[in-house]
Amino acid sequence: MSTQDPIECRILTGFYRLPFARFTTPYTNRRCEHEAGMTMIGASIGGRPVGLAVFNFGDEAESASLESIFVDPDARRRGVGRGLLKAVHSTLVDMGAANVAGTWFHDAPSAGPVERLLADSGWSEPVSTAMVHHCGRRFLEHVDRNNRAARLPAGFAFDSWANLSSDEITRIDELQETQEITPGLHPNGESMLPASPKTTTVLRHEGDIVGWMIHHELKPEMLRYSSLWLRPDLVGGGLGISVAIESARRHLALADQIPRLFFMVMENNHAMHRFIARRLQPGIDRSSSLMKSSKALLAAAPTPGLPG
Questions:
Q1: Domain co-membership, 177 together with 113
Q2: pTM, whole model, 2 decimals?
Q3: 276-290, pLDDT tens digit by residue?
Q4: First-to-last C-alpha distance (Å) of the chain
Q5: Is residue 211 part of a domain?
Q6: How many Cβ atoms from other residues are within 10 Å of residue 164's Cβ?
């Protein structure tokens, strides 16, 4: 690989993704295989893979998301990152996207280089959008020790996701429309990760499902506490906290098998941030700010050199 060799960027499909797969996570690779909106753009120098950018843009969306960008350490300071971002920009313009945004953890080893790369490429000043809390057994034991067992009102009961029948799963799907549940709060909002059947907790009222705390299996040893939902007329009475605590207790019973977890709280959820500081902070191992930057995609002259 000569320093004089040009950087070549191209959209990757099928077999051609394999040499670049090491530049992103197994989860992102699976999404690229199964989700139509996921696109990989690989960078090569002298025929050698040196970088990868992955973005997601669906047919009905206006905004795209930059899912990952990585440059081989041996090929850095040669303009590979800027070349990948230019290729992402021109490809998304051709697809009709209005803007693109990306997120990263403020304390990630690559955070500084990513922020400099985005700033040099005209992206917006990064802002914190959420706090992600990383925890383990100490957190689960803290929750269990400092919270009494919930005394649910008459007619309410907890249940396990593992106990739901196929008909009940269908009814949960129907709730998405009748209750206008956003994809991020609905169990089907995450198509590539399985719900943890024994720790995901359902709230019933007179047998009907009226709430849940969904845990997704991110890795065999890690859960993501993904979404807490209650039927709107039940919000505000403490039932949501009870569901969350019950789900943590169910996780504690399996902590030897699944020792790690993390959960995210949006920046503007001030009530939850106060609750965490008052009740949960002693059990949290590490907290990371989720940073976000974006860029408007202005139509420009066609950029050559992006064959499929």
A1: no
A2: 0.82
A3: 999 999 999 999 999
A4: 23
A5: yes
A6: 20
